[in-house]
Design goal:
Blueprint: E1 8-11, E2 13-14, E3 24-25, H1 27-40, E4 42-43, H2 46-55, E5 63-70, H3 74-86, E6 90-94, H4 107-115, E7 119-122, H5 135-151, E8 158-160, H6 168-176, E9 181-183, E10 202-203, H7 211-218, H8 222-227
Parallel strand pairs: 1-5, 1-10, 2-3, 4-5, 5-6, 6-7, 8-9
Helix pairs in contact: 1-3, 5-6
Bound molecules: zinc ion.
Length: about 230
């Protein structure tokens, strides 16, 4: 059994304009980060990582998985061309009720991205913060979002908790709803064996633009990352 537990990177928006309420990485910084991953890391689909965890198989050295929350339209316009060019598989967690609405990915864009190797997962129906809901409603958000996406021909094997919010009971409900794994926004990577319904992720920032900076974040050295000034 490998002791290497790969980083799962978490992005929200990739856009030239920062947003006050959603973490945003500029197109330039995102491109640099993907080039570094393509050259020095081994980007794998989250599904491959789940395969390894399920089977207790050794995870390849330098493996890294790239994920996005919310499914904003800019991911098609700004992030997808870079992911395609760098041949990086990624997974986007969609708010099921937002698909096709203004500002979010459309079914056509999702279909085009799937052809280009991008996978999709669920981020609830309404971007609900699950710990503040009764369990009955939590189960509905988990099951209904999966059903909605799959009725549109988008397989949703994976789940991401909005705001990272979950409890052990909610994680159990995600498993019961049929998800193979679920991601939090809790920091960190070093937990093995990993709880597949509480996978930790590494939040990516626009100021991480050097190979060293990417390595530091991927290895979970957050304190060091904050102290280091990276060259632009
Ligand atoms: Zn979200």
């Amino acid at each position: 059994m490998s002791l290497w537990y790969p980083p799962i990177l978490a992005y929200h928006r990739v856009d030239p304009q920062p947003a006050s309420d959603t973490p945003t990485v500029s197109i330039k910084a995102f491109e640099r980060q993907m080039e570094i991953l393509a050259a020095r890391w081994r980007p794998i689909p989250l599904g491959d990582l789940a395969d390894c965890l399920e089977a207790g198989r050794v995870i390849p050295r330098r493996a890294v998985a790239v994920t996005f929350d919310d499914g904003e339209e800019g991911l098609f316009t700004h992030a997808f061309p870079i992911l395609e060019r760098c041949r990086i598989p990624a997974l986007i967690f969609l708010i099921a009720d937002n698909v096709g609405k203004a500002g979010s990915l459309s079914p056509g864009q999702i279909a085009r991205m799937r052809e280009g190797g991008i996978q999709f997962g669920s981020h609830t129906v309404h971007h609900a913060y699950l710990p503040s809901l009764p369990m009955e409603q939590v189960r509905r958000e988990l099951a209904e979002s999966k059903r909605l996406l799959e009725s549109r021909g988008i397989p949703a094997e994976f789940f991401s908790y909005p705001g990272g919010g979950f409890t052990p009971e909610i994680a159990e409900a995600a498993r019961e709803a049929g998800y193979r794994a679920a991601c939090t926004t809790n920091r960190g990577i070093r937990r093995f064996p990993a709880d597949r319904w509480a996978l930790r992720r590494v939040a990516m920032h626009a100021n991480t633009v050097s190979p060293l900076g990417v390595w530091i974040r991927c290895c979970g050295y957050y304190g060091l990352n904050r102290r280091l000034r990276e060259p632009a």
